[in-house]
Specification:
Negatively regulates transcription of bacterial ribonucleotide reductase nrd genes and operons by binding to NrdR-boxes. Its cofactor is Zn(2+). Belongs to the NrdR family. This protein is an alpha+beta fold. It has five helices and six strands; from the N terminus they run E-E-E-E-E-H-H-E-H-H-H. It has helices at about 65-75, 80-95, 105-120, 120-135, 135-149, and strands spanning about 10-20, 25-30, 35-45, 50, 60, 100-105. The radius of gyration is 17 Å and the shape is elongated. The protein starts with 10 loop residues before the first strand and ends with a helix. The protein binds zinc ion (ZN).
Length: about 150
């Protein structure tokens, strides 16, 4: 992306975060040439993120899928939906900060585990015990579904 001050191409992202309720990502960028900082807003629809699954197949990143898994791990725990949504925002910020077009599902799983660990021990153990065995967010979701029945 070009710097709006000096028109050079050498800019880098120093921070990315989702804008709540606006389906966009706010990015702080810094120009390596002149050192000035500026902000861009990018629509989520224009940032296609692909998830690489364990078998190397690809699928579109789906926030709801991950959020569903977290909600299942938090089943009957004293954790509000709002808290889970905030956690999801933090997780997405980390994912989008990677600046990659494709991310492995294992990486997403690791980020989710890190965040859950801080939030709730029981939810973390539920998530981690199943997740570590399967190392794949999709298989994990299926297994977790069975566990909760
Ligand atoms: Zn510049």
């Amino acid at each position: 992306m070009k710097c709006p001050f000096c028109n050079q191409e050498n800019t880098r992202v120093i921070d990315s975060r989702p804008v709540p309720d606006n389906n966009s990502i706010r990015r702080r960028r810094q120009c390596d040439e002149c050192g000035k900082r500026f902000t861009t807003y990018e629509k989520i629809e224009t940032i296609p993120l692909t998830v690489i699954k364990k078998d190397q197949s690809r699928e579109q990143y789906d926030r709801m899928k991950i959020q569903d898994g977290i909600m299942r791990a938090c089943y009957k725990r004293p954790i509000s939906v709002k808290t889970i949504e905030n956690l999801m925002d933090e997780i997405e910020t980390e994912i989008f900060n990677k600046e990659e077009k494709e991310v492995p599902s294992t990486l997403i799983g690791e980020i989710v585990m890190d965040k859950l660990k801080e939030l709730d021990a029981v939810a973390y153990v539920r998530f981690a015990s199943v997740y570590r065995e399967f190392k794949d967010i999709d298989t994990f979701m299926d297994e977790l579904k069975k566990m909760m029945k």
